[in-house]
Design a protein that fits this description.
The protein has 413 residues and is an alpha+beta fold. The protein contains twelve helices and 17 strands. The strands form four sheets. Strands 3, 4, 5, 6, 7, 8, 15, 16 and 17 form a nine-stranded mixed beta sheet that branches. A four-stranded antiparallel beta sheet has the order 11-13-9-14, covered by helices on one side. The chain binds zinc ion.
Length: 413
C-alpha cells in the first residue's frame, strides 16, 4: 500500500506541540494535569477532529481518537503514548508515539483508505509520574492494574492536590469508561530509545521484545547523630559510612551475579547533613533492573543480606521498602515480527532490544498483545531539554510503525 504519510507534517506537529510549555535549552515542562497539559490535549483534539476522528476522554483523562474500520465487529488496534513531560523534559519523549499514530490516521484519511479494524490513537494521562505517582498511572487505571478510585484519589507529590480535582480543573475529566480500552485487539507504542545503543551502533529502529523487571526501594539507614570531633571512631554509629558501604556492595553484587542488569541510586538524603555532625540517618532510593524476574529476586536477596551484615558490623539499622516494582515484560512475538517485516520492507536496519525504562506498553501488555518500536535519540539523552532526534529517524520510525499497524488492523482477528 502506498500511503501518503507526511514525515514533514509529523515533524511540524512535534515542533508546534513543543511550543506549549517551553523551557530554556529547547525542552518542555508540561506535567500531567497542568493547564499546559490541557492545552496540549486541546491541540491534539483539534488535529484529530480535522480529519474526522471521534475524540473521547475517559474518567481518568485518557484520550482516544478513533477512526472506524470496515468491519464493525472487529476490536480496535491502539497506537499511542503520552503528551505529558518531566519538569525538565524534551520535545520527543511521549509526543513522538502519539503524533506518529495521528499521522498514520491522517494519511489513511487523505487517501480514503479503510482498514478492517478500527484504529485508535491514545494519549495516556500522567505517564511520567513526576507530579502524580506512580508513573504510567492513567494507563494503569485503564488496564485495571489500579482501580479508578485509587487513581482519582492519588495526591500530587508537591502540594497534595487530588488527581481527580486536578483533572477536573483542566476540563479533561471525561465520561468514557476507562477500562474500555483494555478490550482492544493490540497495542503499538513508538518511542525514542532514551538510551545510546541504536545511534551508537547505526540502527534505524529497535524492535522492543520486552522490558526489564524492576524494583525500586527507599532504603533507610539509621545510626546515631554525634559530634564529629569528640566521638571516637569505634563509638560511632555513622549512617553515612554504612550507606556508602551498602551502595558499593550492591554494585559489586550486580557485577558478580548479573552484569547485564542495572543498579542505580537515584536520590540520597543525609540527616542532619550539617558540618561537624556524624550523620544519624540516611535515606536513599535504590533500584535493580534485570530482564529475568528470578535474577532480579536473587540480586535483591543478596543485597538484603549484604545490607544486614554491614548494618550489624556498623551498629546501625537498615530497612528497604520497595515502592516501584515491575515484573519482566515480554511483548507479543507476532507484533514484533510485523515490525521486523515492516522494517525490512523499508530498508530500515533493526535491532531486537529490551526496554530499560518503564512505558505504558508494559501495562497494556497485561491485557492484550503489545509491542514497542524505538527510534534513536542523540547521545541517548532524554528527560532533558537537549533531548533530540533527527528527521530521518523520525521518518523511518513512522514508516515502519504505519506498515505494521495497518497490517495488523487488516489481518488480525
Ligand atoms: Zn515516555
Amino acid at each position: 500500500m502506498n500511503l501518503p504519510l507526511s514525515p514533514d507534517r509529523l515533524w511540524d506537529r512535534l515542533m508546534e506541540l513543543a511550543e506549549i510549555g517551553p523551557i530554556p535549552g529547547g525542552g518542555n515542562n508540561r506535567q500531567a494535569l497542568s493547564a499546559l497539559d490541557g492545552q496540549a490535549r486541546t491541540l491534539l483534539k483539534r488535529w484529530g477532529e480535522e480529519i474526522g476522528l471521534a475524540v473521547t476522554t475517559d474518567r481518568l483523562g485518557n484520550m482516544a481518537l478513533r477512526r472506524e474500520g470496515r468491519d464493525p465487529t472487529r476490536k480496535p488496534i491502539l497506537v499511542g503514548s503520552h503528551l505529558d513531560t518531566q519538569p525538565t523534559g524534551g520535545k520527543f519523549d511521549g509526543p513522538y508515539g502519539v503524533l506518529a499514530g495521528l499521522e498514520i490516521l491522517h494519511a489513511l484519511h487523505e487517501s480514503g483508505t479503510l482498514t478492517e479494524a478500527p484504529i485508535i490513537v491514545v494519549n495516556w494521562t500522567g505517564e511520567e509520574g513526576s507530579r502524580f505517582s506512580p508513573s504510567l498511572i492513567g494507563c494503569a487505571g485503564a488496564m485495571g492494574i489500579l482501580t479508578e478510585a485509587d487513581v482519582l484519589d492519588r495526591r500530587a507529590n508537591d502540594d497534595g492536590e487530588r488527581y481527580g480535582d486536578a483533572l477536573k480543573a483542566t476540563g479533561w475529566d471525561g465520561t468514557a469508561e476507562p477500562t474500555l480500552l483494555a478490550g482492544a485487539a493490540a497495542y503499538f507504542e513508538a518511542h525514542i530509545e532514551q538510551g545510546p545503543v541504536l545511534e551508537r551502533e547505526g540502527y534505524d529502529v529497535g524492535i522492543v521484545t520486552g522490558g526489564f523487571a524492576t524494583e525500586r526501594a527507599l532504603v533507610t539507614v539509621t545510626g546515631e547523630t554525634s559530634h564529629a570531633g569528640t566521638t571516637p571512631m569505634e563509638m560511632r554509629r555513622d549512617a553515612l559510612l554504612a550507606t556508602a558501604e551498602m551502595m558499593m556492595a550492591a554494585e559489586a553484587i550486580l557485577y558478580r551475579v548479573a552484569p547485564d542488569g542495572r543498579m542505580t541510586v537515584c536520590r540520597f538524603m543525609v540527616d542532619p547533613g550539617a558540618d561537624g555532625v556524624v550523620p544519624g540517618e540516611v535515606r536513599f532510593s535504590f533500584d535493580y533492573r534485570h530482564p529475568s524476574n528470578a535474577t532480579l529476586n536473587q540480586l535483591l536477596s543478596e543485597a538484603d543480606a549484604a545490607f544486614a551484615a554491614i548494618a550489624l558490623r556498623r551498629k546501625v539499622s537498615v530497612i528497604r521498602e520497595p515502592y516501584w516494582t515491575f515484573r519482566a515484560v515480554v511483548f507479543d512475538q507476532g507484533l514484533a515480527e510485523s515490525l521486523r517485516a515492516a522494517a525490512d520492507r523499508h530498508g530500515a536496519r533493526h535491532l531486537d532490544m529490551l526496554s530499560g525504562a518503564g512505558h505504558d506498553a508494559y501495562h497494556a501488555a497485561a491485557r492484550m498483545p503489545a509491542v514497542m518500536l524505538f527510534i534513536p535519540c542523540h547521545g541517548g539523552v532524554s528527560h532533558h531539554p537537549s533531548e533530540s532526534i533527527s528527521r530521518e529517524w523520525s521518518e523511518k520510525g513512522l514508516r515502519v510503525l504505519a506498515d505494521a499497524v495497518i497490517a495488523t488492523a487488516n489481518s488480525r482477528e
